[in-house]
Design brief:
Arc Repressor Mutant, subunit A, three-stranded antiparallel beta sheet
């Protein structure tokens, strides 16, 4: 089991390094791309920043910091929600849409090359197995799922964002 843990960690680090490199000339980071992709998928609908944070598994403060940079770069615009003045809704700008589409096109080729040795069924199996591993590591020894709001989890999310 320990060998498997080290293999997963090594693979995750290599994958993270590659994806960070891929994003450098488009969205600048995987976390920024993840936000831009969520907004792109919303097709113009304003997405609450708290929804973005929940989808990414990070704190709202983390998303606020990322959003500030995206807004400064002219990729995203935020407005106050009509129904809840405390809620900010984010939308892509035209510049943001162009960045997402450029990143998606460039990374489609890279991802196909990275996963060329795997069939669609194998990719589905891999995703299923990785989800089971993720869930296993979010459980305490007594079988109770750990709260993602722990200090360690927050530190880990901030480090990967």
């Amino acid at each position: 089991m320990l060998g498997t843990v080290f293999m997963v960690r090594s693979t995750a680090q290599r994958l993270d390094n590659a994806v960070c490199g891929w994003m450098a000339d488009t969205a600048a980071s995987p976390a920024r791309f993840q936000i831009l992709a969520q907004l792109w998928a919303a097709k113009g609908r304003g997405v609450p920043q708290k929804e973005i944070a929940a989808n990414m598994g990070v704190t709202r403060a983390t998303v606020s910091g990322l959003m500030a940079g995206l807004e400064r770069d002219g990729l995203v615009a935020s407005t106050v929600a009509d129904e809840d003045r405390r809620s900010l809704l984010a939308r892509l700008t035209r510049k943001g849409e162009a960045i997402v589409e450029k990143a998606m096109e460039a990374n489609k080729v890279r991802l196909r090359a990275a996963f060329a040795a795997m069939s669609p069924d194998e990719l589905t199996t891999l995703a299923t197995l990785l989800e089971r591993v993720r869930r296993g590591f979010s459980m305490s020894p007594d079988g109770i799922e750990k709260r993602e709001g722990s200090r360690v989890a927050k530190r880990r999310r901030l480090a990967t964002a």
